[in-house]
Amino acid sequence: xxxxxxxxxxxxxxxxxxxxxxxxxxxxxxxxxxxxxxxxxxxxxxxxxxxxxxxxxxxxxxxxxxxxxxxxxxxxxxxxxxxxxxxxxxxxxxxxxxxxxxxxxxxxxxxxxxxxxxxxxxxxxxxxxxxxxxxxxxxxxxxxxxxxxxxxxxxxxxxxxxxxxxxxxxxxxxxxxxxxxxxxxxxxxxxxxxxxxxxxxxxxxxxxxxxxxxxxxxxxxxxxxxxxxxxxxxxxxxxxxxxxxxxxxxxxxxxxxxxxxxxxxxxxxxxxxxxxxxxxxxxxxxxxxxxxxxxxxxxxxxxxxxxxxxxxxxxxxxxxxxxxxxxxxxxxxxxxxxxxxxxxxxxxxxxxxxxxxxxxxxxxxxxxxxxxxxxxxxxxxxxxxxxxxxxxxxxxxxxxxxxxxxxxxxxxxxxxxxxxxxxxxxxxxxxxxxxxxxxxxxxxxxxxxxxxxxxxxxxxxxxxxxxxxxxxxxxxxxxxxxxxxxxxxxxxxxxxxxxxxxxxxxxxxxxxxxxxxxxxxxx
Length: 523
Hints:
The protein is of the alpha/beta class. Helices cover 39% and strands 18% of the residues.
C-alpha cells in the first residue's frame, strides 16, 4: 500500500488553507431537497488546497466539478479561458447553463433543489444557498454569490489546435507574443520540470477569443499546431492559474489527460507550489493512481455509486481507488501472521469491507521468516504491512523491535527512531498471553453460552460441546484444533472459524485492538 509522508510544502499548504480567511476558500458543497443527473442528496468537503476526486465513469465527478464552478461570482478583471468570447461585454463568471443542458425528455434541475456552499471567510456570512424560484423556475440572483475568480478547464483543453478547423483557418493571423519576460521564464521553468526537457521559452499569441501557445527548446521553436496535446494542456493550466491571480479556484476535469506518469508526478508538485504562492484552490477529477497518490490523504475523495446516489469517501489510498474503479481486487495492506490459526482468526473477525482490501500472509515464527519479512520490507522502504503475533509473544515486543533495528544497520531508507515508531504502531497480538488455541478454547469453556458454536457444529447439548473442548485442550500445544476437528468430524479450518465466531460474540473488547491497528494502517 502507498504510504504518504507529508513534505514541508504540504504542511505549508495545509497551514494557509485552514487559516487564510481572505480567499473565500471552498470548504463544503452540498445538494439537498432534490437530485441532479442521478445524484441524490450529498455533501462533499474540501480539506486541502488540491482535491482529487476519483470514481468510476458516471459516478458524478463531472457534476460535482460543474456545481463547484458555479459556487462563486467573479468580480475581478480576470476572464477564464473557457468563457472568452468575441462579444464586447463578455461574462466572466459561470452559470449553471454553462454546464447543464437538457432535452425536453430529460429531467433537469427540479424547482425544489438547493445547492449550498460553505466557505472560509472573515465575514459573518459563511454559506450560500442556490435555489430556483418556485414560480418562474429561475435561479437566485447570481451576483449575490460569494466573490472569487473561478476557471473551469474541461477535457476539450487537450484538443490540439491542429485538429480545430477554426485554428487552422486563422493560423496566419495570430498576433505577437503577449507574455511578459517574467511569465515567459516562469512557464519555461515549470515546463522543464514537468516534462524533463529543457524549455528555453514560452509564447502566447491571441486572435479574438483564441489563444495559441508556443514553446522553444534549444533551436527548435514551435506552436500549438505542432505541440503534444499534453504540453498544450499543461501550458493552459499553468498560465490560467497565474492569470487568475491570488485566491482563485481552478477546476480541472481529468487532470492527467495527455500526460505520462512522470509528468503527472511533476505537475502535481508544481501545482502545490502555485497553490502556496497564490493561495489558489485546485479541485480536479482523475482516474490515475499517480495523481491520487500525489496529494495527501485529506486531499483525496472517492465517489462510490449507490442505488439512490453516491457515497463520498475521504482519505482513500490509490490502491483502493483503483480497486473500486476496476472492479478488481487490489490489496492495500499485507497482514503478517505466524500460522493458519492466526490467519483464520483475522479473516473471521474482519468485516468484508476491510477483508477485501488486505492480504493475510503466513510467515512462520516471529524469530524466523516473519522477522526477515519485516526487515526486508523496511529495508526496501515499504511500510504496507502490519504484524499480528501470537499472544505469548506479547512480552517480547521490545526485544523484537530492537532486533529488527539492529538487522537494518545503516539502512538509508528509514532511521532507527522511525523503525521503532512505525513498528510500535504496526505490531499487535492475538488475545491473551498464551498461544491462541489455548486462549480461545479456555475462554469458551468459561463462557455460559456456546449456542453459536453448537449451531455451527450441529451439537445438541452444551455438556457435549464442553466435553469436546476439554478433550481438545488436553491434546497438546498447537494440536488442539486438529483434535477438535477429529471429534467433530469437520474440516479443521471450519472448526477454527466456528470457534472464533463464538469467541467474537462474547469477547469483542479483546478483539478491538487488532481491528484498530488494521484500520489505522489502511487509513
